[in-house]
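Homework help board

Subject: predicted structure for assignment chain

Our instructor gave us this sequence and asked us to write out the predicted structure in C-alpha cell form, then describe one feature. I got the C-alpha cells but I'm not sure how to describe them. Can anyone check?
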Amino acid sequence: MSYITVKNNQSIFFQEIPVLDYESFLLMNTGFLSKEHLHCVNYYGLAQKEKLKLICCIANDHEHSIYVSSCVLPLPHLDEIGFPEYSSFTARHLSFHIFEREIHENFGIRYHDHPWLKPVRFAHDRFNKESGIAEYPFYHIESEELHEVGVGPIHAGVIEPGHFRFACNGEQILHLEIHCGYQHRGIENLLITKKKLLQRVTLAESIAGDTVAGHATAFTNVWESLSGCVPRADLQLARTLALELERIAIHTGDLSAICTDIAYQLGASVFGRLRTPLINFMQEWCGNRLAKGLIRPGYSNFKFTPELAQRLEIVLEAYERDFDEVWDRFHTLPSVLSRLEKTGMVSWHDALSIGCVGMAAKTSGIERDIRASHPHDLYTELRHEPILKIHGDVYSRTQLRHEEIKQSLVYIRKLLEKVAAQPDSERVLLQAQADRFCLSLTEGWRGEICHCAITGKDGELVHYKIKDPSMHNWLALALAVRNNEISDFPICNKSFDLSYCGYDL
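My C-alpha cell output:
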C-alpha cells in the first residue's frame, strides 16, 4: 500500500504510515493534485537521528478522507559537500512551494528545480544560521523607469511585523514580494517542551489572536483523538457555537475595516459597533472577549446554559437588524462598488495552482471548506454548503463575508435549539496513547487550519506541526495586486486579512 487513508481527527499508529522511496513519493503525491478536489493539507519533515522523515497529507474533499504517506531521506550536514539534490514537488505543482521552502530552511534538503527556494521564517534552529533576515533575497528588477516601495516591518497601528516590497511603474504595481519571518515564536517546539496540557492548549489559543476558537478546537480534537476520548455532545455544541461566533465577529470587523479603507465612514462606524456586542457576549460566556479559556480537551469550565442561549438570541436579533440595514446601504453605493469591483483579482487558475484555501479559494470559485469536506463536531449535523464566488476580487471577498455571516446566524439558531440544562460533570483526565499519529482539520473564519501530532513510546508528544491558512494565501495577495495601483493595496490587503503570527509560528 502506497498510503494510508484516515478521517479527520482519526488517530492511527505512526508505524502504519507507509514509507516510499522518494521518486514514488513525489510522483504519487503530485499526481493526486491533478484533480481539483484533492489538495495538500500538510507536508513537513521530522528529524530522526541521522534521517529525515517526510510526511505528506493529501485531502480528498469528495470522499471526506486524507491520504497519508511518508519517505525517509538522509539528513544533510552543514559542512557536507556534494550532498544530493532532489526533484521538487513544486516544479510539478506550485502549491507545494511553501512546504518545500520550509523543509529546505529547517533541514537543508536541496532541490535542483524548485523555482523560488527562499527562507520562510529564519527560525532560531534553522539549518543554516549564517543567513539572516537582513539579507533576505528580495526579487529585484534593474530599470531606470521602475522604483521600489518598501512597507514594514514596522507598521502603523497595532499589527504584526511583516515586510512588503513593491516594484512599481509609476502608480502601477508590477510585482509584490511579502516576507513575514520577523518574530519566529517557536510555538511548535514549545508544544513539545511544555508538559502540562493546560500549557499546551493555552499555546494553541495563542497561535493567532483572532482565531482562538479555530486553533483551540484543532488542538483539542487532536488531543482527544490521541487519548481515545469521544467528547460529549454539549462540548461539541459549545465548540461549534464558538467557531461560528468567531466567524461572525471577525467578518463584521473586517467589513468595518474595508469601509475605512475606502473612506465610507458610516459603514466603518456601524460595522465596527456591531462587532462589539458579539465579542462582549463571549466575555459573558467565558470571561474573555476572544474566547480564551473556553475550549479544553475533555471538559469545559464554562457551560453553555439555556440562560446564555436566551441572551444570545437577543444579541443576534439586535445585531442582524442593524447589520442588514447598513449592508443594504453599503453594497448599493456606486462610490463603494467602484472601489471594490475588479480590484485585486485572483483567477481560478492562480488560486488553484498556489493552493488557496478558505475565503481566498471560495471567492475564486474553488470549494475549500472543511465544514463540508471533512466535518467535525456538530458540522456533521448542520450539513454545511459552502458559498462560492467566481470573480476573485475585493467585492467577492466582501460579499462572501456578508453571506457567511447570514449563514452562520442560521447555524447558530439551529444549535441554540439543542441547548439544554446540563448537570455538572467531572473533568476527564486525558493521556495520549503511545506511538500515535493524528491530523485535525478545522475551518477557521480565515480558512483551513491543520494540526498534526505524533506521540512517542511513553505517549508524550514528540512532534507537533501547525498550518494556518495564511501559509497558503499570502501569495494570493501578492498576485492580486499586480497591475493595480499602489493606492489600492490597503483595500486588497484588508480583503484577505491574513495573519502574520499564524504564518510566523
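Reply (TA_rk): Your C-alpha cells look well-formed. For the description, you could write something like this. Residues 59 and 66 are 4 Å apart (CA to CA). That's the kind of observation they're looking for.
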